[in-house]
Amino acid sequence: MKTIKFQLEPLTCPSCIKKIETKLGKMDGVEEAKVMFNSSKVKATFNEQEVKAEEMKEVIEKLGYPVLN
């Protein structure tokens, strides 16, 4: 398992957290996805054999939340 953090543009609503966590959590290989509202960071624990960091980044951006790193 590997853990990665994504820095997002500032989040403006708490419902953003649920949307991102739910979508990432449904991806094969993602064990846990946690969004920190105050810092606008996403922390994800995942299996590199099943999912790539770039795929998670694309999912977050398709939801409308630009990833800064």
- Beginning-to-end CA distance, first to last residue: 20 Å
Annotation field: number of helices: 2
Question: Strand order of the main beta sheet, please?
Answer: 1-3-2
CATH fold node name: Alpha-Beta Plaits
Radius of gyration: 11 Å
Number of strands: 3
Gross geometry? globular
Strand fraction: 25-35%
Domain HMA: 2-68
Keywords: Metal-binding
Protein name: Heavy metal-binding protein
InterPro entries: Heavy-metal-associated_CS (IPR017969), HMA_dom (IPR006121), HMA_dom_sf (IPR036163)
Q: What's the helix and strand layout?
A:
Elements (H helix, E strand, L loop, with lengths): L1 E6 L7 H11 L4 E7 L4 E6 L6 H10 L7
Antiparallel strand pairs: 1-3, 2-3
